[in-house]
Amino acid sequence: AQSVTQLDSQVPVFEEAPVELRCNYSSSVSVYLFWYVQYPNQGLQLLLKYLSGSTLVKGINGFEAEFNKSQTSFHLRKPSVHISDTAEYFCAVSSNNAGNMLTFGGGTRLMVKP
Amino acid sequence: ETGVTQSPTHLIKTRGQQVTLRCSSQSGHNTVSWYQQALGQGPQFIFQYYREEENGRGNFPPRFSGLQFPNYSSELNVNALELDDSALYLCASSVGANYGYTFGSGTRLTVV
Questions:
Q1: CA A92 → CA A75, B68, B91, distances in Å?
Q2: Range A64-80 average pLDDT
Q3: A15 touches chain B (CB under 8 A)
Q4: Which residues of B touch A101 (CB under 8 A)?
Q5: Is the pLDDT score of A107 beyond 90?
């Protein structure tokens, strides 16, 4: 079975400060990893994904994430956040063995303050 | 790309009733999945269809059922609605799971 833990339910940060949203996963097989963002009353938008290759993945809106297999982590980072980044962020894992279904973490609410 | 479209956007039903939610996937997306997102939680996988056949199911009872049609549209049916079925239901489609899924904006179902 696969699972995802997002260690912080809320992350407050001031505008233009850097941010890291933490994600750890558990799986006995090779995985694919994703970060999605959800704005209020909307669906999920894909920020970035790791399928294979380089462990540093760059996504949209200036976000990036690093896959660390030994620590089973896939933390999301942005060097300078904007007010518009305020949203809910979800880390998700899938694998061929699990039928490629996405297993999501509980989410991290990023609150950017002026 | 036309994206993933879900209808209706909001719905209120009474406990015990049945509901059908609809999703129109992007052209060429042969895989569609449905997720339930309760308030304040991450989405939970309900089931997945590939080329009109169910090929994966999460921990949901049989009263949750679905269909996928040749025109890339799909349905989620829920019978005998319970209060705990109140949630945002998300449809997601893909050309193949490894490419990531495109999500719709969801249907907010409220059971009273």
A1: 11, 24, 16
A2: 95
A3: no
A4: 33, 45, 48, 56, 58
A5: yes
